[in-house]
Design goal:
The chain is an all-beta fold and 163 residues long. It is built from one helix and ten strands; from the N terminus they run βββαβββββββ. It has a ten-stranded antiparallel beta barrel with strand order 1-2-3-4-5-6-7-8-9-10.
Length: 163
């Protein structure tokens, strides 16, 4: 039987060599798939974009909320993170300790059939998952690569409050 828990989580992604930093705090639902596998689902707080970016009408300057859904598949051996939203960007990262994984970004155009995909590689330096029976902390260190060019080193940190 699939069990689930609602918990407060803090998710951050920080570059160790670039000025990139993102932090999300939200209530997430954690689904326990089996003893070592979990799915974590959260709605990222709304990001405001100007109407000029989403509407061809140049005089519109209202802010539009764009909620995004983050879904993490977590195990001690591999992590997959998917972001979907009603905005212009979606992505999926697949990390596995000591392996080159795939990071894909999908960019949506204003037309239904107008989209493009960016495919990058990531190398997982370390992956640590602590906590039992529900994970309490995930720390993932990885490098992002485009062909032979390194695009930075990153740390993904997930803290889950267990009651």
């Amino acid at each position: 039987m699939l069990t689930h828990h609602r918990r407060l989580v803090a998710l951050s992604i920080v570059s160790t060599d670039l000025s990139v930093w993102s932090d999300v705090r939200a209530i997430a639902t954690i689904y326990q798939r089996d003893q070592e596998r979990f799915h974590l689902l959260l709605t990222e707080p709304k990001v405001a974009i100007s109407r000029e970016q989403s509407d061809p009408e140049p005089n519109s300057t209202d802010l539009l909320p764009t909620p995004r859904l983050l879904w993490l598949e977590i195990s001690p051996y591999r992590i997959t993170m998917t972001m979907q939203g009603d905005g212009k960007l979606s992505y999926r990262h697949h990390w596995e300790r000591g392996v080159y994984g795939i990071s894909r970004y999908w960019l949506q155009g204003s037309q239904i059939r107008q989209s493009s995909q960016i495919k990058l590689r990531n190398y997982t330096r370390s992956l640590h998952l602590d906590g039992y029976p529900i994970p309490e902390q995930l720390r993932l260190e990885y490098e992002l690569w485009a062909d032979q060019t390194q695009l930075g080193c990153y740390v993904l940190n997930l803290e889950i409050q267990n009651d």
